[in-house]
Amino acid sequence: MKGRNQLFFRMLLKAVWVRKDRALTALISVAVVATIATAALTVYSDLENKLSREFTRFGANVVVTKKAVSKIAAGTDKSSNSPNELEKISALLGPSGEAVPVAYAIATAPDGSKLVIGGADLKQLKQLNAWWSINKSADTNLPLVGSRVEDKLARDQALTIKVGESDHAIGPHLVFRSGSDDDSRIYIDLPTFIAWTGVQPNTVLLRVQGKPQEIQSTIDRLSASLPQAEVKPVRQITQAQTSVIGKTRSVVFAASAIVLVLIMLTMVATFTSSVLERRKDFAVMKALGASNRTVNVMFASEAAVQAIAGATIGYILGCGIAFWIGKANFEAAIWPQPMLLLPVLLGSMLLALGAATAPLRLLQQIQPAGILRGE
Amino acid sequence: MFFRLLFESFRRQKRRKSVALLAIALGMTIATAMIAVGNDVGDKINEDLRRNGGNLVLTPMEDTLDVNLGGVNLKPASEGAFIAESDLPKIKSIFWGHNIRGFVPYLSSPEQITANGHSLNAELIGTYFDQPLHFGKDDFTAGVRSMSGLWKVQGEWPEDYAAWPEHAAPNVLAGSKLADENNLHVGDEITIGGRKLHISGTVNTGGAEDSAIVAPLHIAQTILGQPNKVRRVVVSAMTKPEDAFGRRDPSTLSPDARDRWYCSPYANSIAFQLHEALPNVRVDQIRQVEQNQGKVLSRISGMMLLLTLAALLASALAVSAAMAGTVLERRNEVGLMKSLGASDAAVASLFLTEAGLLALAGGLIGFLAGAVLAHRVGQTVFGSAINVQPVVLAVVICAALLVTFVGSISAVRKAMQFDPAVVLRGDA
Fold this sequence. Notes:
The complex is a heterodimer of chains A (about 375) and B (about 425).
Chain A: H1 2-18, H2 20-55, E1 62-66, H3 69-73, H4 83-93, E2 98-108, E3 114-120, H5 122-128, E4 133-134, E5 144-146, H6 147-154, E6 160-163, E7 166-169, E8 174-177, E9 185-189, H7 190-197, E10 203-207, H8 212-225, E11 229-233, H9 235-277, H10 279-287, H11 292-330, H12 341-364, H13 368-372
Parallel strand pairs in A: 3-9, 5-8
Antiparallel strand pairs in A: 1-10, 1-11, 2-3, 2-10, 4-8, 5-9, 6-7
Helix pairs in contact in A: 1-2, 2-9, 2-11, 2-12, 4-8, 9-12, 11-12
Chain B: H1 2-12, H2 14-50, E1 56-60, E2 68-69, E3 72-73, E4 83-84, E5 100-115, E6 118-127, E7 131-135, E8 138-142, E9 152-155, E10 171-175, H3 176-182, E11 189-192, E12 195-204, E13 212-216, H4 217-224, E14 229-230, E15 232-237, H5 255-262, H6 267-277, E16 281-285, H7 287-328, H8 331-339, H9 344-382, H10 391-417, H11 420-425
């Protein structure tokens, strides 16, 4: 028995050694399939996280307002989001989210026109609205004046606004451009705002982190725990996130599937032709008295060894490619997924076994003598 | 003699040649499909996003400040400056006119509405729904329906009336929140400014429209007494993600660089051109959308490019391996030819011509199959075809030739190093 096993392993080793080029071709074809499968699957499984992370740059994706905010604006209702509600919001957002309470009121410009002023933690506000183009990058707590306000009212002059009956000077300020209604607003520090207007924060801008379905479930939980408030997603942002991530995943999936199927076909063709090429070996083995089973085991073991070696190399290369794609494109590594190793190994082995043993059935129908005569 | 050898080689080795051809064709199918999909995915997603809203906003230069609080517009229509509605088709006249996917004008004012016998205050918003327009020889439509990914309408969309219809109350949409709070239903009649309007549907946008009445622009203009006037226009333009060059001020650029800047579809250059076409208008990027989407799109395009590179490399390896296999299989022929006096160059040229022919045929088949696959991916994912640029054919044929030659050369060289006598004895 020992001798039989030794002979078997010697034949296995020699088959690879004597026809190094042929073995290498088969190994490369398995490795290519495993590399692409690993890289595509690793990238695909992490894609939602990576792209969702990109969407946090969009700033606030949910806005919580006290119901009937217009009453607050008109000064008839000075209620606010109580500290208790803010705590609830922070608890629901978790450590990765951000909540910026903002208060709004209407002021009068020197020319008699109305404008909206907001009060907020200016540092947090700038952080949340990172896309605002601000004329100076100084990290100061200076008031933020919208570009349209600057063009209309300030023009490098001292800007004074009237809140209620008293005049207030805005003083040195930064000018920002957003392309939204904020361009017609002035934001000042919250304590100053409260001192000027007596109005407490009535809106909370939220940046909810996570995948589209996680954002939606946070919105649902916020709505349930804050019945007095209106919780609205910024639909252009949340919809864009859902649509972009969904489409991208589908494209990556479709493209990877095409590539994988085609590469698998190439691999099967390579394996099949390398077995057919060896019909003389097959005939010699049969002529020397090997049973069909022995020959099958011989060829299948060769294919399995090549598949395991190729798949292991491919898995390592594929993890490397996925890591590189993450670093090069998303500036954050896409880490290897150990749970992919088994499916990649098993898949490659099954494919190789199928590709190598299918032609044997064809050969078994032919007499060894015929093959040896070259027919 | 050479051509007979070539012809016979293909005729007698159909199986081997078809395996090689299959490998090349499959490799090139991957190349074509991935290049086409990778090249188009950014544009396709961009186009998709552009249907969800605009990225540029036009306001009158001399306008007063917006007074918008909690999504409620508190500025009356009588205040401030306007853009002339008749000037709007000029938006399409700019150099990047074909990149303008659509635009939506708005005219709005807080108004008193009489509904079901009681009165309430809400905003009246006038806009285009699907207004046919033409500029020069171009006919196009503008309005929320082409940019209405976020507008969920229950009931019927109103028509854009060219003139006030005498026979019936014109159709309008009621915001879903307004309708819920005031018990308004599809089919109800309301009165604004003495004009009767018919609610043909309710609309939910997640924005200010939810608490407003949305009417065709011309109806709103008549009610508000502001003919040919709009307050704001939101433009949806296909733009290129902004880079350092795109952020430059065109007045500081050299004439050549300025031309390059002007002829690139950056949001800034499109905004600049819109300002040229409509001089009394201030054009702003909606920065939350424009600045961030560009980044996301460049990430996606980048990822597809890298995946394409990985797939190309893999298919090149697979093709090379298959070609090396087919050449090595024929070392007996090399031995025979050499023993009959053929020079190395003659043998190599025969093999390389064969490889070239296979590459041409495989490249062509692969290109066609890849184009079909890319088309199917486009239809399935985006509902619109991904078109393969003809230049990809040239790229694919070159790639096929390169990969096939590289795969064959090392094998041919190795086959020629064998001693003919040893090869023919079958010992090699």
